[in-house]
């Protein structure tokens, strides 16, 4: 499958009665009374906590940007812990609390279409965040097939163009996982690399990745595995734990890919235990979501060009904002996650990794 081509391309009011006085609800959209979404309620529904990015980056960055753009706005936050039924209940809850806009990163993109319909029945727009929903009002994410291609290209290069690998993909319920997988296969299937076994991890969990890899080590000797495609850093950590648990020296691990630029992954890369990760500027994504959400809450059109310089485009018929992923290796940690302020060098260069940081030219 080729990388998708992208083309440029009021919420309801509510009131609460107290005695004989009518007061505007805290979450009501009073767009006609002022700008910047004053008094609006914006719901942020994220899918899980197994991946560290959501609690450590997406949520605080989104909330901070909303606060900056609209100090009087309220953010209703919920995390579904990978439970689609729970997420559906959370949507109903935030709508009942007067949400004017919903920013939704779905557990399951297929069942999320019904959630969008529920919100639309109440004239509440939905922004599909990070994962595509076909009937959403807006969508924002990274160029996901390119992510898979970049991962696979780095793996093939690290392996010298040939060898046998294990392949660990993301959850089948996550549309991004299918795109990562397609992008990776578009590179791997035409290379000199052979896939020994392939696994779709149902919840992206590192624990599943570790157990599955351990099971494969009952079929194959560690020396028979010359590389591992892991779709994200959590799974990469599980794979590496399984390999070292089977007696592989940390300095002799096969190249392992990743994604999300988690601190643990950056440290493993500097220590030579993981080959690479994909850095996706969550700051740009979260702040773009906040900017669009505040505009919609204020009854305005979503910006055609955001404050961060991202242009609105079209993805499968949905107005979208698409961001570019970046490969991170030991050679460019300074120029990517540190230069962008995603991490401070002190966050990465703890005592255990001080020597590795010094060797990579990273100083506090």
Automatic annotation (TrEMBL):
Signal peptide: 1-25
Subcellular location: Cell envelope
Pfam families in the cross-refs: Peripla_BP_4
SUPFAM superfamilies, sorted: Periplasmic binding protein-like I
Domain Periplasmic binding protein: 42-300
Highest rank taxon of the organism: Bacteria
Keywords, alphabetical: Signal
Record-given protein name: Substrate-binding domain-containing protein
Organism listed in the record: Nocardioides bizhenqiangii
């Amino acid at each position: 499958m080729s990388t998708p081509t992208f083309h440029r391309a009021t919420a309801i009011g509510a009131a609460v009665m107290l005695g004989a006085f009518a007061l505007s609800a805290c979450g009501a959209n009073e767009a006609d009374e002022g700008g910047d979404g004053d008094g609006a309620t914006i719901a942020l529904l994220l899918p899980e906590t197994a991946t560290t990015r959501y609690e450590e980056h997406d949520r605080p960055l989104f909330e901070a940007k909303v606060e900056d753009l609209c100090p009087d706005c309220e953010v209703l936050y919920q995390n579904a812990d990978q439970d689609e039924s729970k997420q559906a209940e959370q949507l109903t809850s935030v709508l009942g609390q007067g949400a004017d806009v919903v920013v939704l990163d779905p557990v399951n993109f297929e069942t999320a279409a019904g959630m969008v319909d529920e919100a639309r029945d109440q004239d509440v727009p939905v922004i599909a965040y990070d994962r595509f929903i076909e009937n959403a009002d807006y969508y924002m994410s990274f160029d996901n097939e390119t992510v898979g291609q970049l991962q696979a290209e780095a793996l093939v290069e690290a392996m010298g163009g040939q060898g046998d690998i294990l392949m660990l993909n993301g959850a089948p319920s996550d549309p991004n996982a299918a795109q990562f997988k397609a992008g990776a296969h578009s590179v791997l299937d035409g290379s000199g690399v052979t896939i020994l076994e392939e696994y779709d991890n149902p919840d992206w969990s590192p624990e599943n990745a570790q157990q599955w890899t351990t099971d494969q080590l009952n079929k194959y000797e560690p020396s028979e595995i010359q590389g591992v495609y892991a779709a994200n850093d959590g799974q990469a950590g599980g794979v590496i734990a399984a390999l070292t648990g089977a007696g592989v020296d940390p300095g002799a691990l096969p190249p392992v890919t990743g994604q999300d630029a988690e601190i643990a992954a950056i440290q493993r890369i500097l220590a030579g235990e993981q080959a690479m990760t994909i850095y996706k500027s969550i700051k740009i994504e979260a702040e773009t979501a906040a900017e669009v959400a505040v505009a919609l809450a204020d009854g305005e059109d979503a910006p055609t060009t955001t404050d961060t310089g991202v242009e609105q485009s079209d993805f499968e018929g949905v107005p979208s904002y698409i961001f570019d992923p970046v490969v991170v290796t030991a050679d460019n940690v300074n120029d990517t996650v540190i230069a962008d302020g995603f991490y401070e060098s002190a966050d990465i260069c703890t005592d255990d990794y001080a020597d590795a940081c010094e060797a990579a030219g990273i100083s506090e």
